[in-house]
Specification:
Alpha-Beta Plaits, transferase, 5 domains, alpha+beta, 21 helices, endonuclease
Amino acid sequence: MSNTAIIREHHPMPIADELIHKLNGAKVFSKLDLRHGYHQILLAPESRYITTFRTHKGLHRYVRLNYGTSAASEVFQYAISQAIAGIDGVVNISDDILIFGKSQLDHDTALKTVFERLRQVGLTLNKSKCAYNKGTLEFFGMIFSADGVSPDPKKIEAIVNAPRPTNVSGVRSLLGMTNYCSKFIANYASITTPLRQLTKKNAKFQWLPVHENAWKTPTKALTSAPVMPYFDTTKCTELIVDASPTGLGAILQQHTPGNEDHKVLAYASRALSPVEQRYSQTEREALAIVWAMERFHIYTYGTEFVLYTDHKPLELICNNPKSKPPARIERWFLRLHKYRFRVQYSPGKDNPSDYMSRHPLNTSATHRQGELAEEYISFIAQHTTPKSISLEEIKQQTNEDATLQIALKYIQNGKWHEACNLTDPNINNQELSILYSIRTELTASKDNDLLLKSTRIVVPTSLRKQAIDLAHEGHQGLTKTKQLLREKIWYPSIDSMVKKIIDACIPCQSTIPAHPPVPLKMSKMPPAPWHTVHIDFLGPLPTGELILVAIDAYSRYPEVEIVHSTSAA
């Protein structure tokens, strides 16, 4: 119960991949292991009572950080990282500290400084687990040397000696062991596809030759895995991406200027979610670009690089600042403004990531981030404001709109359930109910003065008629007016309000030609059932799906099917 009383401090725990890029040029390595781990950190006297526990000999409490505390790993990581902060050639993951240097002098200087820091803060080492002055060193399951990084032979041996799986749990355990080393195996996702199929829900466990091959192939690949070189900022960086109907693939590689001998730094692939699989090919290829850059962010951020894609339209979209891509792609590409890259077209037959994307690693895809970046919100605010209505005016009226203010408040504190208890007559409960139903699509600006629905501004009540009047200024009709408004703004019941205003527009009504109703023509009775069939689509529904309806003209018997797309594919 003590964990519920702790205000948790969040300090990110680094992984080995985040530290590898710092080791370029390192030739001498040492590793330090802290003795007794968490117990080296003293608890503040006022916090010790939280750790009180009861035994047959009475109540006791911890004086030092214990392993049962929920925030122990983060507190410990932060304490160690602070102790070695500012020392070049030193990194740590939990209680393991890695010291490295490009020369013996650099290494020894860093090692001496670490010893002095540890002495100052009172941390002690486990002598038996420390290693000094090594040209090759094992650290967190990987082997580091002057040439680069490779998988730990002990891990490879454990995989080689692992028994053949006899159930789903064994398959998952095997995949977990090999996945840690997947960055060293080209086409890892393709190789292990049969094994992943066995872990699916309701899949029958039957070990076949194809599974035997998928079990042994990664082992063979690991025993001959190449040494991956470290990332070098002086070399030319290339990111090769591709997308298929089912997955994404990427390869990060480098080469020396003037030398076309490319060295692969890492492989990556992932599966597409069911929703992503329904994207157009251009959208999937664009998603591959965004995913690959963020997947290798630690290498691509701050580095000028070339990105290769086998989708020609994206070369034109990315390299032309005046291009107008579809809204979804434009939103994705807003996340890429912080990168410096040039897109170059490479035919699929020359694209090594093409195979990886068609055989992706079936990891769970992440959906909807917790919040939008402030740059994204600022872009929307500046580019979706209708003419003749200033952004400041929208902010001012939003501040005076009671319903939107309540919505902004609930977005901040997440207490949408309180909406049912409101009795304020200034609040439009019907409109608030609609906002509640789409609350996952709503976002507040940084200063909490604008409400956004996806990429559109939610217009306060006082400005809605003015916005419609501006969009309908040319009397272009109902459909065009709606289209203009939907590009920039949104609010509950916008369609019905537009229709009501246009129906009352005298110039529009006076120019509409009179079309006398045409009487319905009687169709002939078919000679037999299913001789004539009427087919049409209903939708799209709010979920994006459509309903295919087929009716037999003879019996009026209907057949209904839910479909995800009208495409023949």
